[in-house]
Amino acid sequence: MPSKKLICCMVAITLASPLLALRASRAAEVKSGFLLGYGGGAGGEISLTLSQFVERSPLRVRLAMGYATMDPGDPELARRVFINEATDGTPEKSGHEFTWRMDFLAATSGTGETGWSLYGGPRYSRFTGSFRYVGGDEEFDVRAHQWGLGGGAEYRAPISSGVGLRLGGGADYYFDGMIEGHDAEYNPDNQNVNSRENYTYQDAKTAINQPSLQFRALVGVEVRLGAQ
Predict the structure, then answer these.
(1) CATH code for the structural domain at 4-227
(2) Does residue 78 sit in helix, strand or coil?
């Protein structure tokens, strides 16, 4: 799990980079993107990409927010780990994840407007798994908030003036973080709160499909918003 110092640095970089970019050059170009595909589950993301904010530099910065539906995990084990040993009721489940991403991009072929680029940077995830036991009168959510790092490659091609195609893929890795549900908390160091029976953090990870290693593949469009 990253240190508090590393987390503070990630937050500072995420918040400061767009402001520094726009301050560095009044000719910074901004593009808005919308993509659909797979990233831990079916979903999509919206993004803002800044380029030409450093004179003669091919480096670009992208900020994105994503959403994906996910299988939240094993409802029977989740009930035992977070509530009790009851077995009545028919389990129903649903899950989703919000992600915030920051990437630095560099073209490896073409100009960056057309061709391949590599990207990488920090991520933050807010996962929620919902479990309901119909006829058992029990319902609860499990949440996990995690920092991570990721990277990949993508391809750009123009569709028309001001609109371009973007497709790519990669992988993200999220560090272990606290998993909380009902009134129980499980922590990576096993300093847990209201843990059930002799269950540990590893048991909570087994019950819940919170983000760990995720592979991504998305396709969509980018629209040029103009120079700022």
Answers:
(1) 2.40.160.70
(2) helix
Q: Which amino acid is at 84?
A: N
Domain ranges of the chain: 4-227
Distance separating alpha carbons of residues 186 and 201, to the nearest angstrom:
5
Q: What is the pLDDT along the chain (228 residues), one digit of tens a residue?
A: 445 555 555 545 544 444 444 444 455 788 999 999 998 899 999 999 988 666 666 688 999 999 999 999 999 999 999 998 888 889 999 999 999 999 999 888 776 678 899 999 999 999 999 999 998 888 999 999 999 999 999 999 999 888 999 999 999 999 999 999 989 999 999 999 998 988 999 999 999 999 999 999 999 999 988 654
Q: Name 68's bridge partners.
A: 43, 97
8 Å CB contact between 71 and 214: no
